[in-house]
Amino acid sequence: MPLTEEWEQAKLCRLLPSPLYVLYSQTAAYTEACDSLINVNIVGDVDEARSFHTRRLLEEDEDDDSNNVTNEEEDDNGEGGKKGKRGRGKGPAAGQQMSKQEERLRKLLQAHPLQVQVRLRLHKDKEDGADVSVLLTFSHVTRMQIVAVKVKLEDDQNLAGTAYQGSSAGEVLQSSTLLSHLLETGDAGAESPNPANRFLLAEAGYPGGAIPDRHLQEVGSLYMWAQLLAGLQHPEKKEGEDEEDEEKSSRAILPVSEDVSFSHVGQIMKSVRSRVEARLALQKQITQLERAKHIQVEPAVPEEAAHLFPADSDGSSSSRGASRIRNWTLVDWEQYTTLEVARHLVEAKAVSGEDFFFRLQVFLVYFDFTSEIVCLLY
User: Which of 42, 61, 168, 201 is the most exposed place for a label (fewest CB within 10 A)?
Assistant: First the structure.
């Protein structure tokens, strides 16, 4: 890295929020010591980062004043009598309430102006020679005290648009699910890993802690492994904890631990690379199956059953039979749940909307007997 660039990175590093600083320093140290195929950079506007903290404090004061006014109006309207009549018909329209709700959530999900980008190159593919990398862009959602990450797959030969194209094959490389469940089952990145955020979201008009998908697409996925990489360990909600305790914990500053990041950075980087390489290989296989409608394949016959499939006079085994892939299609979760053959798996919760489902149709020929088999794979 040139000296000027190093100086710029050092200047930006001082302005990072603590979780992103830990993520940057630990990942950069791991890169220098263990993996030269990883590149770490800080991106963002220096002036914007300097004014961000002051502006956020002012917005929080405005939100508190607004909440106090709202509570006073609710108290007045709830007293009945003249005050109740005076307030009738003068409330904000439904559209205005919705815009206020959206504005509160937007402020709640506002991220720090500086981001940390980790570009992780994969080992070069020996077959097509593609130079593929995955770009991870980490941001800090300051008010909620969580780290979000956006995932983007990059390659130098536009393989995503040529060799890897296909309706069902493309599903396995969707950026929104590419790194889901990386270290543990259930980590889909769709919910805040900080349990105290349920209070903040309810206060903004989103009870239950659910964040709309359109906002998640803007801020990024909220994976647990991203929190660990940033040295964050959010406390679990204790049984019997009341709303007042939850409100206090939502406003408390979470500690950031370099030891937590240090103990996970190697595992996370290796898991990311392994996941992307496995998905690329899976997509190639699915693409071949999609294009294999006219490929004839001889099924393997176990030795103990070989006498049931005698060879032809010329020694060939064509009389044993052959199979041909007739169709390979993607099945979405809504379709899958309506299938009778899949009902027991759905009811037993052995499958979920996070899985991939495919329908395989195979045309079989044995002697003069023909048959068609339909299989559901997940």
Answer: 61
DSSP H helical ranges for 243-351: 243-251, 258-290, 333-337, 343-347
CA distances from 193 to 40, 96, 130, 224, 227 (A): 24, 30, 36, 6, 8
Dihedral angle sign, alpha carbons of residues 220, 224, 229, 235: positive
- How far is C-alpha 30 from the chain's CA centre? 23
Q: 292 burial class (0-12, 13-18, 19+ CB within 10 angstroms)?
A: middle
| Residue ranges covered by each domain of the chain | 3-283, 292-377
The pTM of the full predicted model, rounded to 2 decimals, is 0.76
Quick check: 21 and 92 in contact, CB under 8 A?
A: no
Element (H, E) at 43: strand 38-43
Which tokens is 204 given? 């903004």
- For residue range 262-282, list pLDDT tens digits in order: 999 999 999 999 999 998 888
